[in-house]
Amino acid sequence: MSFKLIAIRPLSGIDTKFLKNLVAGEIYNLCNDYILKNDQGKLVRNDANIISVQYKRTVPENLYSIQKIDGKVININVSAIVGKNGAGKSSLIDLLLLSIFVVSNNLDLVYPDNFIEQDSKITENDELNKYKNDIVEIEKGLKVEIYYLLNERFYKLVIN
After folding, report:
1. Beta-carbon neighbour count of residue 150 at 10 Å?
2. pTM, rounded to two decimals
3. At residue 82, does pLDDT exceed 70?
4. Which end of the chain, C or N, has fewer beta carbons within 10 A?
5. Strands of the chain, DSSP E
6. Where exactly are the structural domains of the chain?
């Protein structure tokens, strides 16, 4: 299985506590080999609809390949999020993790017991209610699109 995160776009109407220093509607491309285009075939920069994804190789195909003694080739992907201080690197990761959390929670893959402090002075029932209220707040304020490649197919996850 192969997975590549292509881009993240916080949508208009996202709660500012999730934006921090990011701009709503702006596409944050995380993989230079993929160009997101609108219905006129132009590069998408803001709130425009993304209609197609164009692949453009920026590094040689076998740059990160290793051939084992038995002849099998291992392809290695190297990824990094780089930028100046305050550019939004941590904010992008926060959006990604919150999105994964929301999807996982809606698929019942998250166990609230894991988020309840056992040694807390608050009762377990109050902790559970706080957790549920936090989930509602996150789901209400999080508005994001995530573009990714899974097994050579493009997908767009929208949380709105």
Report:
1. 11
2. 0.80
3. yes
4. N
5. 3-10, 28-29, 34-37, 52-55, 65-67, 73-75, 144-150, 153-159
6. 3-159
